[in-house]
Amino acid sequence: MIVALKLLLSPLLIAAASLIGRKWGPAVSCWFTGFPFISAPISIVLALQNGLDFSANAALGTLGGQACVCMFALVYILTAKNMPWWLSSILALTAFSASTAAWNAVSLSLLPALFILLAIVMLLARFIPAEKVQLIGATHPWWDLPARMVTALVFVAGLTSASRYLGPQLSGILSAFPVFGLILAAFAHAQHGGMAARQLLRGSILGSFGIAGFYVTIAWLLPVTGSLWIYLLAALMAVAANRISLRFITPK
Predict the structure, then answer these.
(1) 164-173 burial, b if ≥16 CB within 10 A, otherwise e?
(2) Following DSSP, what letter does each residue of 8-60 receive, concatenated?
(3) Reported pTM
(4) For the chain, what is the mean pLDDT?
(5) Are 59 and 108 in contact (CB under 8 A)?
(6) pLDDT at 221
(7) 3-state class of 129 per DSSP?
């Protein structure tokens, strides 16, 4: 099961999310990252490898990781208007790394971590307006989808292999590393301009509600029940949360 999760599940999920995102455009595309396509398989593997308590603690770290993803998105959004995609990517990843170091330096319980994440999301959603984006000549090279799948595979395999050295909190934070958001934003920025990248990452910020619903369920109930079936309930929570946030994705 661990091998299957590492080699199959994450690449297949990110491929499916990429294809769905192409149909609905940049504003909705990164909203799908609110369904934890990358971090959920990592969480399951951590539970199988290191025990349920480890995975529950990592879930708490993932809430912090998503807050760091929001900082990544904010910096990319602020820089994408006047900078090329590669420079926006570097600055945004620097912001993610700095946020990760800051979050890993403290130890927060579930409710404060949830409060901080939701406060960040609501503030950013309030001050980053939804805008209509006109995509012109939307094409994708043949290697685009395989590259995303390979990236997901390498990251999931690398993180789960290193988890015993990183510990639960840092493993959880880094499981939220914006692989999907970075790839989508860079491609959208290069092909369709900074506005497309900004709206795409606004969707990523709003998708944080789904991440919060998923990992609060894991951190709270996994140690209590001792059952991996909690992941199914967590998935339902993510769907419910993102169903609500979807109506705020596109401009009215």
Answers:
(1) eebebbbbbb
(2) IIHHHHHHHHHHHHHHH-HHHHGGGGGS-TTHHHHHHHHHHHH-HHHHHHHHH
(3) 0.84
(4) 84
(5) no
(6) 94
(7) coil
